[in-house]
Predict the structure of NAD/NADP-dependent betaine aldehyde dehydrogenase.
Amino acid sequence: MQKFQQYIDGGFSDGAAQFESRDPATGQVWALMPEARRDDVNNAIEAAERAFNSPEWADMTATARGKLLMRLADLIAENAGVLAKLETRDTGKIIRETSAQIAYVADYYRYYAGLADKIEGSHLPIDKPDMEVWLRREPIGVVAAIVPWNSQLFLSAVKIGPALAAGCTVVLKASEEAPAPMLEYARIFDQAGFPKGVLNVITGFAAECGAVLTSHPKVDHIAFTGGPETAKHVVRNSAENLASTSLELGGKSPFIVFEDADIDSAVNAQVSGIFAATGQSCVAGSRLIISNKIKNVFLEKLAEKAAAVVIGAPDDMATEVGPLCTIAQRDTAVNLIEQSVEAGAVVVAGGAPLKRDGIFFAPTILDCSNAHGAPCLTHEFFGPVLSVLGFDTEAEALALANHTEFGLASGVFTRDLTRAHRMIRKLRAGIVWINTYRAVSPIAPFGGHGLSGHGREGGLQAALDYTKVKAVWLRT
Ligand code: NAD
C-alpha cells in the first residue's frame, strides 16, 4: 500500500497518526495518509512564522520570489502526469480532466511568478510641503490555506501562487478525503529551492487539525475553499486570532437559455456545465432556466446526451463521467432527489446510483416546472444532477436565476447582445459567462457573494489581498 508523508519546515514526516484513503472507483483502501494532530499543526505554523521572519525569505527580492515560482511552475509541468494520476486515483476525478487541469495549474503559478515584482506601493500627495507620504505593500503574514478534495491542485495554486508572490508563508491543509495529490505536490515544491518553512503541507480532520489551524494566534489570514457550513466554523474559529478571511464556497449556478440561442452549442455547454467533474464543481451549472418555447426540444437533446455519456473507470481516457468522491455525497443526492420528487419534480434522466462497484451515480435531469419549492432548486448537490425550470419572459428568467442564496457563477445563452447586457447588469453572481461556460484564466478574478463567500482568486487583486498596507510619513 502506498504511504504518504506530510511536509513541515522543509522535511517529510509521518503525522501523529495515520488514516486510510479509499479509491472511489473501487471502494478499496489504497493508501495511508499522515494525520496532523495539534502538535503537527503547531509545528507547521511555527515553521511558517520562522520562515516569514527569516532573512532568506523576508529579505528576498520580489524578482527572486518570482523566479522561484517560475521554477515551481516548470516542475509542476514536468511532473504533470504523476500529479494528474494521483488526483484521479484519490478523488475519482477522471484522468481527462485532471490532465487538462494540471496544465493550467502551471499557468497560474507562471502568472503569479510574473506578478511578484509588480505589486507596487504608492505615493500620496499630502497637503503639507515638508512631508513625504507613501504606502508600502507588505506581505500579510502566515496564511492558512484550506482546500476541499475536488481540484485541490488548482484550488491550492490560486492561494499559494499569490501568497508566495506577495512574500507570505503558507500552511496548506489538504482535504482528508483525498490528500494524495497535495502531499505529492509537496515533494515537487521541495525541489524548487524555496527556503524551508515557506510552504508546509499537512492534512487532517476538522475537529483537531482544522480547528487548531484556523484559531492559531500566529495565523494572519485564512484562505478557505469548501462548503458554506464549514466556512461558518472557520469564521467562528477566526474570532480567536482575528485573521482576515477569503471564502470560496459553494454554488447553485443558473444556466439560462433564451429561445434565440444556438441550441446545440448551449446543449453541449450544459452537458459539461453540469456533468464535468461528475457535477462536483462549485461552478456547476446546476439550474437550467430555459425558455418554454424551446424547453421540450432542448430537454430531448440533453437527455439523449446524458444517456450517451461514457461512464467508467476514472483512469480511462475514454471516460467522460467518473464516480463521486464520497459515499456521503451519493447519499445527499439520493435524499435530495427523493424529497424533490415528492415535491413534484419529474425525473427526465437518471435519478439513482448505478449498480456497479464504486460510488457511481447516473447523470440526472429533474424537470421542476411543477415543483418550484423543491430542494433540488436550492441545495447544492455537488453531484451530476441538473434541475430544470421553464420561463416565458426575460424578467421571469432573471427572477428565477437570482432566486438563490448563492452567488458564484451564471451562464446566459442568447444571440441578442442587448439582452445579454441587461442580464449581465442584473444577475447576482461573481461570474457571468455569455454563450460559454466554465471558462477560467489566471488573469480573471473568480469568486462570489452571499453563501458563495467573499474575496476573489485569480487576477491581480488576489495578490494584493495577500498584502497589508503600511503608511509611511517622512518629514523632510
Ligand atoms: P468541506 O467544507 O467539507 O471541506 C473543505 C475543507 O475544510 C477540507 O479540507 C476540510 O477538512 C476542512 N474543514 C472541515 N471542517 C473544518 C473546520 N471546522 N475548520 C477548518 N477546516 C475544516 O467541503 P468539501 O465537501 O470537501 O468540498 C465541497 C464544497 O467545496 C462544496 O460546497 C463546493 O461548492 C465547495 N467548493 C468551492 C469552490 C470555489 O472556488 N468556490 C471550489 C471547489 C469547491
Q: What stands out?
A: The longest helix spans residues 95-115.
